[in-house]
Design goal:
The protein has helices spanning 35-46, 61-68, 87-102, 123-135, 184-193, 201-207, 227-238, and strands spanning 6-11, 29-30, 33-34, 51-56, 77-82, 110-113, 140-146, 153-156, 162-166, 174-176, 180-183, 212-216. It has 243 residues and is α/β, with parallel strands linked by helices. A hairpin with a 5-residue loop joins strand 8 and strand 9. The structure holds cytidine-5'-triphosphate and magnesium ion (MG). One of its GO terms (biological process) is isopentenyl diphosphate biosynthetic process, methylerythritol 4-phosphate pathway.
Amino acid sequence: MRTDRVHALVPAAGTGTRLGASVPKALVELDGRALLLRALDGLAASGVVGDALVIVSGGMLGEVDAALRGNDWGPMRVAVCRGGAERADSVRAGLRVLTDRLGDGREGHVVAVHDAARCLTPPGLVRDVVAAAVAGPAAGAVPVVPVTDTVKTVAPGPGGTETVTGTPDRATLRAVQTPQVFALPAFVEAHERVTGPVTDDASLVERAGFTVAAVPGDPRALKITTPTDLALARVLLGGEETP
Ligand code: CTP
Ligand code: MG
């Protein structure tokens, strides 16, 4: 895969409500380096990403521009655009900027959507998922890890409590991480054809009828969501070299 055909979209426009920091989550520092910059470090170190488009809220543009300045990500080019109210809106906004830039030249290109909040994702995982997406025959690939808890489905029950409605077979369940990587034409088509709420990028591609491959994920690709996750990330960082 030619690196100039691998484009990362990095959603970073969230506020980080559950983390509860005084700055947007992407700008929260882990051992002195912002989560967003660490996520970009990992993408650049993979050596397979040609450019990264960071998607932020309007209010963050100045601060993010300043944070990006002075970093050296080698041949990986980094640009910034404005996102939307929900994560899916942010990805859609980034995709529009990317496709406008590429014009008709989308064949053979892939897009890697990677949360800024998954800041310790190993470069090797980025390479693995890109390689799986490029190899086909599936339209894309996502990193997954086994689920350790038993998962229940629930529905509203009597007296305002929830009632358990089922227990899916845990052996068939996986938690999904990022980067989620897709053939760009399939991703664009999925965005054109599928509407409605989605919680990850692959579900849109699946609903459009494409096949998505699942490749082994990595615990270090955890998403920083709560203060507990940040504490865990600090532990992970202490035990090994950064990408
Ligand atoms: N994200 C985004 N645009 C939004 C919402 C989220 O680009 N409107 C990004 C976040 O910045 C993050 C990723 O999507 O990198 C995953 O979202 P999540 O972990 O939920 O982050 P936040 O929405 O910031 O956190 P919270 O839900 O706790 O507010
Ligand atoms: Mg959120």
